[in-house]
């Protein structure tokens, strides 16, 4: 995972979901580790991880209401 892409994705998710970047960064790193374990093809990891983090954050926001 390259640093500029990681930061860009984290900042975009944080902005879109009104979530602190630190929280998104932690979730992204944890999800990346989970998804990359045993993965042979990494081409779409950024997209898949970002999607899962967004889904999880939307679920948290929905549960608060």
Q: Helix count?
A: 3
Percentage beta strand: under 5%
Would you state the CATH class? Mainly Alpha
In CATH terms, what is the architecture?
A: Orthogonal Bundle
Between the first and last Cα atoms, what is the distance in angstroms? 34 Å
Oligomer: single chain
Topology:
Layout: H1 3-17, H2 21-36, H3 45-64
Describe the structure.
It is a single chain. By secondary structure, this protein is mainly alpha-helical. The protein contains three helices and no strands. It has one domain: Helicase, Ruva Protein, domain 3 (Orthogonal Bundle), CATH 1.10.8. It has helices spanning 3-17, 21-36, 45-64. It starts with a helix and ends with a helix. The mean pLDDT is 91.
Defining traits:
65 residues, mainly alpha, 3 helices, 0% strand
What's the quick description here?
The chain is an all-alpha fold. It has helices at 3-17, 21-36, 45-64. The longest helix has 20 residues, at 45-64.
């Amino acid at each position: 995972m390259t640093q500029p892409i990681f930061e860009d994705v984290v900042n975009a998710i944080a902005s879109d979901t009104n979530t602190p970047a630190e929280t998104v960064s932690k979730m992204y790193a944890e999800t990346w580790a989970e998804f990359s374990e045993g993965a042979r093809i990494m081409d779409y990891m950024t997209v898949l991880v970002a999607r899962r983090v967004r889904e999880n954050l939307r679920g948290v926001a929905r549960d608060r209401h």
